[in-house]
Amino acid sequence: MLYTVSHSPYHCDLSALLRLVTAEDEILFLQDGVMTVLKNSESLNLLLNNPTSLFVLENDVIARGLSGQISDSATLIGYNQFVDLTLKHQQQLAW
């Protein structure tokens, strides 16, 4: 399943999300959700204890002036790769 997170970690129950995901799932952070994977953040530490693949929409990182502040544990992707993720996962859940 593809989980998309569009809200700031301060307005999202990340712990509840992490109880649902499995190693086969992937999480995409977009809009204000990109703040979840800032280097050395508490929310990132929660994510790193989980085997799920992490992706971040690069345009949203740039729009928020966060270039260079995103953890290397998350893969920056563009819109084409976003489409590829949606095609890969038949089920998706916006968080």
Automatic annotation (TrEMBL):
Q: Which GO terms describe its biological process?
A: tRNA wobble position uridine thiolation
The GO terms this record gives for MF are: transferase activity
InterPro entries xrefs: DsrEFH-like, Sulphur_relay_TusB, Sulphur_relay_TusB/DsrH
Record's keyword terms, sorted: Cytoplasm, Transferase, tRNA processing
Q: Where in the cell is it found?
A: Cytoplasm
* Example of a GO cellular component annotation carried by this entry: sulfurtransferase complex
Taxonomy, superkingdom: Bacteria
Q: What does this protein do?
A: Part of a sulfur-relay system required for 2-thiolation of 5-methylaminomethyl-2-thiouridine (mnm(5)s(2)U) at tRNA wobble positions.
Its subunit composition reads: Heterohexamer, formed by a dimer of trimers. The hexameric TusBCD complex contains 2 copies each of TusB, TusC and TusD. The TusBCD complex interacts with TusE.
Question: What's this protein's family per the entry?
Answer: Belongs to the DsrH/TusB family.
Q: What is this protein called?
A: Protein TusB
